[in-house]
Amino acid sequence: MKKIMILILTLCIALPFFGDNFSWFSQSDSRWNNERLGSGGTSIGDSGCVLSCLSMLLNAEASNPYITPNRLNDWLRQNGGYAGTDMRWQIPGQIDGNGLGLELVAQSTKRNDWNFLSDQIDKGNKVIVKVAGRRSHWVLVTQRNGDINKAASYLVNDPGMKQFEQRTLAHFGGFRSARSYSGNWLDEEAFDLESEIYVVPVQNDEYFLYDINNLPHPADVYVTLQNKLSVGISGYFILGLFDAEGKYLRTVDYEHASVSASGSVDLLYELPDVSPLNKANQKLRIVYSKYFSDVPSMNDTTPLTDKGVINYTNVTGQ
Questions:
Q1: What class, spelled out in words, does domain 2-16+188-316 have in CATH?
Q2: Which of 15, 215, 220, 311 sees the fewest Cβ atoms within 10 Å?
Q3: What integer pLDDT is reported at residue 134 of this predicted model?
Q4: C-beta of residue 61 within 8 angstroms of C-beta of residue 101
Q5: 283-289 sheet: strands from edge to edge
Q6: What architecture does CATH give domain 23-182?
Q7: Domain range list for the chain
Q8: pTM of the predicted protein model
């Protein structure tokens, strides 16, 4: 006979949280590395580290649309954002209007000014720093994890990498100057999945309709999400299927939703086939993105932390 079993699956999987779950772009990305930077003669690939860091910030800020280095470069060229190839640091904050979203709030020209850096991070700001070394290069500091006066305590997103790897300021021997930006960051702390992810298959008396036509058993998937920011959030909430090692396999379904400031929304998805959850040890996860893709990049999206999955699954037994 068939019986219903309730399986509570906690999803403690090792997702590739690139950039400490914060947007990361490479200035060498083939989509834009050869584009001319500003009004000068160099390219984004050669000198676009500041541009790429600012693109990370804007893409991870709730008030802005999906931003990439080439899109930001075009906007800055049309809005006085460059003096040659040099960035006018306050201009990118105007892309969403003055006093809204991303804003340049402080700067320091003191070498290894750890008090400045730690204070800005404690305020919830993100800091772009010019790192030590002969070549002028800027990276984005996303958080501190340790003593305030140790370079190894500061996690960074380095746009100079072709493939992401976790780095700290210790990789560069510290920093020489810094610019701090405030914003409403779309990181893991911006979202709260208030309930477990529920997987509810079709009723038992409907199974024969699928069985006689040799069709898989579908299910509804739903969860309640709360916006923890003081501004609204809009975008795609993608239901993804992951393997046991945390690799993104495919998009199952998605909802485009707008969530008011400090508001909540019920997300409802359709799962065409429940068998991967029961037989292949695959897992469901919700990913937030400003754009839609069948296989979204983990570099510029946010996998949401959940409370687990409650899977009402049909299992054959005696």
A1: mainly beta
A2: 215
A3: 61
A4: yes
A5: 248-259, 233-242, 283-289, 302-303
A6: Alpha-Beta Complex (3.90)
A7: 2-16+188-316, 23-182
A8: 0.84
